Amino acid sequence: MEDYRTQPALVALAERPELEDLVGGDPAARLVGDLGAHLREAAGQALLTNALLTLDGRWLVIAGPERYRYFNEYLDSRTPDTMVVRVLYHG
């Protein structure tokens, strides 16, 4: 953790606490605790959006908390050689 805190951006943040609003608080503080829990949370939200274009051509719009479950189940059911991409679309 100490090596992390000596990075120039974090040193600047320590020297100028008013920057915390810009970066959302102390980034190092978010890394304490259970590494596995952090990884699961990050993986669970990595590709999450309100819409999913499935491999069989269906465009699904899923809102609310059930989208986490649906997206993760859908991705987990793919074969290991399936390529998954996230496309930003502005209509």
Describe the structure.
This protein is mostly helical and 91 residues long. Helix content is 42%, strand content 7%. A hairpin with a 5-residue loop joins strand 1 and strand 2 (59-61). The longest helix has 11 residues, at 35-45.
What layout of secondary structure does this protein have?
Elements: H1 2-5, H2 8-15, H3 20-23, H4 35-45, E1 51-53, E2 59-61, H5 66-76
Antiparallel strand pairs: 1-2
Short summary of the structure?
The chain is mostly helical and 91 residues long.
SS class? mainly alpha
Largest sheet: 2 strands, antiparallel
Determine the strand fraction and express it as a percent band. Answer: 5-15%
Gyration radius, in Å: 18 Å
Low-confidence segments, given as residue ranges, are: none
User: Can you write the helix and strand succession as a string?
Assistant: HHHHEEH
According to DSSP, the number of beta strands is: 2
What helical percentage do the residues reach? 40-55%
- Determine the N-to-C terminus distance: 43 Å
Mean pLDDT: 78
Q: What is the overall silhouette? A: elongated
> Widest sheet: strand order?
1-2
Oligomeric form of this entry?
A: single chain
* Total helical elements: 5
Keywords:
mainly alpha; two-stranded antiparallel ribbon; 42% helix; 91 residues; 2 strands
